[in-house]
Design goal:
mainly beta, 2 helices, AttH-like fold, about 375 residues
């Protein structure tokens, strides 16, 4: 008995060191979650009760067709690693065709390299020389193909608890569209596609108030701009400019001023944006959103009610008319100006309180 008692302090010291080691490992794991590395090309299988991995695609075509798609793997709700795709096609006459599909962990397939999500009637595949989104339903078929840039842009200066990576800024795209009643598929030509990747180990509401993204998708110039408002009251902005397939600028803009429409529900839509960076000035006037989606709609009850006490996310899409002025165009070249139609995407994690909303037409930024 005496010998056993003599060993007790030693065992306690060993246990204390083991627990300390676990604490260090936990701290390192938490730090890794706080400051993630670039996402890479593969779809991630998220870890954590509220973790998710999302890929947002926006494409514009010469015909005037607009495509949006969000592919997500999430642990929200019952079970882990559920997959869902929600998207839409806007025709030149402004008709909106929505498509969606969701599957539990065993109802969809992810390729071993993580580059292909197969939800049977919807496939998101980035393995070949052409990447593609395929939607094949009885009454609706869509195909979007694009040439990958192979040079994702990693804005490390943006908040890292909810990171984002831009895989395509304005890559060449083509495709086809068919819906019930059409004699045959309509070709989608002369397109440009943008693709972003987001992931988080927690609810976005813990690190995001609002994310505003503006996409210029033109053959000779592509531009991606984002403004992110976080719960601590900070605002972060970042812009990337692509010309002739090369990223010629990426970083914080010299100036960015956004104005907002009033909205009693707490989800103001963008009214205008004025962004200046590295010899580039972008001015855009946005229309009213043509699409608004409650992201909790795809979460089954009763989890939806429980989540709504912490987050009421909203996704909105709008068109914008832009004017782009390029003054830093290189020796011997005159300043250039270009105008056209851009796309605005806004994500809210929660509605803004009335006192947090700027008056209609008032700006944020500087």
């Amino acid at each position: 008995m005496a010998r056993a008692r003599d060993r007790t302090p030693v065992l306690r010291r060993i246990a204390s060191r083991v627990l300390a080691g676990f604490a260090v490992l936990a701290a390192l794991a938490a730090a890794a979650r706080e400051v993630p590395s670039p996402g890479g090309p593969a779809v991630r299988l998220p870890e954590g009760e509220f973790a998710s991995d999302a890929w947002d695609l926006i494409a514009r075509f010469q015909s005037g067709h607009l495509v949006f798609s969000q592919a997500v793997v999430t642990n929200l709700g019952w079970g882990d690693h559920k997959a869902a795709v929600v998207g839409l096609v806007v025709t030149p006459d402004q008709k909106v065709q929505v498509f969606r599909r969701s599957e539990d962990e065993h109802g969809w397939k992810l390729s071993r390299d993580g580059l292909k999500m197969d939800l049977r009637s919807i496939v998101f595949d980035r393995r070949g020389s052409l990447h593609r989104l395929d939607v094949g339903k009885d009454e609706f078929e869509l195909r979007v193909e694009w040439k990958p840039s192979h040079s994702p842009v990693w804005p490390a200066v943006l908040p890292q608890r909810c990171p984002i990576e831009i895989h395509e800024i304005a890559s060449e795209a083509q495709g086809s569209l068919w819906s019930e009643g059409m004699a045959g598929p309509t070709p989608l030509e002369g397109g440009r596609v943008a693709l972003t990747h987001r992931w988080t180990a927690e609810l976005e509401a813990s690190c995001l108030v609002r994310r505003t993204e503006l996409y210029v998708l033109e053959p000779d110039v592509g531009l991606y701009f984002t403004e992110i408002a976080t719960p601590d009251g900070a605002t972060h902005r970042w812009v990337a400019l692509e010309r002739a397939g090369n990223v010629v600028y990426q970083g914080a803009p010299e100036r960015a001023q956004l104005t907002w429409r009033s909205d009693a529900s707490g989800y103001p839509a963008l009214q205008s944006a004025d962004v200046t960076a590295a010899g580039v000035r972008l001015r855009a006037n946005a229309s009213e959103p043509f699409f608004s989606f409650d992201l909790l709609d795809r979460v089954p009850m009763p989890f939806r009610s429980a989540l709504a006490t912490r987050t009421r996310p909203r996704l909105m899409l709008a068109r914008a008319h832009f004017m782009l002025e390029l003054t830093n165009v290189g020796p011997g070249r005159a300043p250039a100006a270009q105008q056209g139609n851009a796309v605005v995407k806004i994500d809210y994690a929660n509605p803004l309180a009335a006192q947090a909303q700027p008056p209609a037409g008032a700006g944020t930024g500087g």
